[in-house]
Amino acid sequence: MSDETPPPGTPDDPRTADTGPRPEPLRFYGTTWVDHTGHYALRRAGLAAGSLLAAVAACLVLRFAFEGMQIAEVGGLVNTLLVVFFAVCSAIAFRRTWEGFTRRLDPSAEQSLRSVKTIGFIGSLLAYFFRSLAEAPGEKLHRTEYETARARYERRSTRRAGNPAKRKRRR
């Protein structure tokens, strides 16, 4: 038996028992993203501010590290390479995090970029901040999957709910 759950809306999905598909919970939001209840707006504002604050704190820590490199007098080339390295990793992390909010990404590709995203964590924090300004990060992706699963479930249940006497017999 695998640890992975089937995609939402499939017949094997345990979330579709009796009542149809259930929304997939988002980190920090649970299932409040569906109908925006449970202090959803307050949570979104708090998480946006928290991610921005964490990004600023991370920039200060990197600034101290850069000053340490200057004190050690490692040279201009090493300092430049360090700044470029963090900038490129942050840009990649921003882009991959942003894409992860709008579509499912290949898990093997995400695994291979995990170290780059760890180094460029400021980019991930900024992507989370900017996405939180519009919606809960990942809400659009989960909403489309949930609505597709609900529509599929409704079609299946209306097909089964018809008058059995009027159905055509299969031979």
Overview of the structural elements:
The chain is an all-alpha fold and 171 residues long. The chain has a domain at 36-133. The chain is built from six helices and no strands. The protein has helices spanning 40-71, 76-102, 107-112, 114-119, 121-134, 139-160. Helix 1 (40-71) packs antiparallel against helix 5 and helix 2 (76-102) runs parallel beside helix 5. The longest helix has 32 residues, at 40-71. The two termini are 36 Å apart.
Topology:
Blueprint: H1 40-71, H2 76-102, H3 107-112, H4 114-119, H5 121-134, H6 139-160
Can you summarize this structure?
63% of the residues lie in helices and 0% in strands. The chain has helices at residues 40-71, 76-102, 107-112, 114-119, 121-134, 139-160. The longest helix is centred in the first third of the chain and has 32 residues, at 40-71.
N-to-C SSE string, H for helix and E for strand: HHHHHH
Determine the fraction of residues in helical runs and give it as a percent range.
Answer: 55-70%
Largest sheet: none
Mean pLDDT, all residues: 85
- The unreliable regions are none
Helix count, DSSP H or I runs of 4 or more residues: 6
Summing up helix and strand content along with how strands pair, one would put the structural category as mainly alpha
Question: Rg from C-alpha positions?
Answer: 23 Å
Counted beta strands = 0
